[in-house]
Every structure is written in structure tokens, then in C-alpha cells.
Amino acid sequence: MLQVGNNPNVYPLKDFLYGTLCGDSNIEIKSETTARLTVQDNNNPEYMEWKVSKLSPFFKFHKKVRENGLVAYVSESTEELYSLKQIFHNRTPLPMLITASPLSLALWVADDGYLQPKAQRYEISFARFVGDEEMCEKIRLAARRHHLDFSVNVKSGIIVFTKFSTEFLNQRIYRFVPPCMNYKLLESYRGKYHDFQLSR
Predict the structure, then answer these.
(1) Is residue 1 assigned to a domain?
(2) What percent helix, strand, coil does the chain show, rounded to 5?
(3) Coil/strand/helix, residue 78
(4) Is CB count within 10 Å lower at the N or C end of the chain?
């Protein structure tokens, strides 16, 4: 992941989007050339607000309260989001794992990662690709190019990282994980968030 310009605390918007688009956020096509982004997290509203605050300089969001009381933020439709929808079909993490920037990986883990308390290793849900052996293998191979080793249970749709890879992943992502998501990190990496800005 390259920092932008000479500022050590500015990172590419693309890296942030690549991480969150294979997690809880979703892009919906609205016309032949535009799409809109929905950011939601029913379990971690503070994390949702943090993501929206990072993206708001680039996309205009409207707060939407659903009939069941749950909150989501929906952006205005743009051509940029339409282009991203073509890349992240069905929210596959494959495009993100090809480059695997620390910022992208941090968003992926914060969105979908589960840290096993006893084993101290990550699980990540992969339910939308259950039974797709070809896609699972592509994702596993892309991750291994960046020294991230995990097994994929094609039937259950669960990725299980090795303990070594979980430690290695924490070394790369801890500075990008906001305080409200500290519980997704190994204990020795918690409380070390460095705030940052995004830039095109």
C-alpha cells in the first residue's frame, strides 16, 4: 500500500473501498452507468459511523432508518461506484487480495473477521461462495502470495487462518483498526490505532 504524496497519514481511497466492499457494505446499480453505496453494521454502529466519516469527503450520504429501527447510510449514485460494482461482483474478496494492502485487509477483518478466543486465530465467513470450489481456490492462492495462509471449508463457507498468519496479519493491520473494533485484534496489538485520511 502506497501512502499519498509526502503525508504519512494519507492513504488511497481505493484501498479503503476495496476492503469494505468485500465486507458489510454493498453497491446497488441504479442506472446503466451509476450505482450507490450502502454502509451498514447493525452490531457495531460506532464502526459504521467511522466508515461513513472516512468516505463522506468523496460521497454524499443520506441516513436511512428502516421500519425495524436499524440504520444504514446510503450514498448518492455515481459512475465511480458503478465501476467498482463490476469489480466486486457478489462482494468477492479476490480483487482485494490481489493487492492485499494493509488498509484493505484491516477493513476486511474488521467487517467479517472473528477472532477465536482460545485458538487466537481468525475465521472469516464466506457463506455467499459455499460450494464454489474454483472461487475458493483462487482466493486461497491470492492470499498465499502475500504470506497469508488459511484453509477454506467449501461446504460451510468458512476461512480459517493459521495462528502464524493471524499474528502476521495483526502486524500489518493494527494501525488501521479503530478503537471500537479493538476486539478484532490480538490483545498485544490493541489500542494502537493511528488516525488517517484518504485521498484519490
Answers:
(1) no
(2) 45, 20, 35
(3) strand
(4) C
Model's pTM, two decimal places? 0.91
Is the predicted pLDDT of residue 182 greater than 80, yes or no?
Answer: yes
Three cell numbers written together for 160: 480459517
Please choose, from the candidates 86, 119, 88, the residue with its C-alpha nearest in 3D space to the C-alpha of residue 104.
88
What CATH number has the domain bearing residue 58?
Answer: 3.10.28.10
CA distance 142 to 95: 9
The count of domains in the chain is: 1
CB 45 within 8 A of CB 106: no
Looking at residue 1, its pLDDT comes to 52
Q: Looking at the domain assignment, is residue 83 inside a domain?
A: yes
**Is the pLDDT score of 104 beyond 90?**
yes
Q: Identify whether 3 is part of a domain.
A: no
Nearest to 79 by CA among 59, 108, 96: 59
Please report the DSSP string for 79-124 in residue order: HHHHHHHHHSGGG-SHHHHHH--HHHHHHHHHHHEEE-TTT--EEE
Q: Which three cell numbers stand for residue 173?
A: 493491520
Return the H-helix or E-strand segment holding 53. helix 45-55
Q: Report the chain's mean pLDDT, rounded to a whole number.
A: 91
Give the CA-trace dihedral at 10, 101, 20, 15, to 10 degrees. 40
Axis-axis angle for helices 102-112, 13-20 (nearest 10): 30
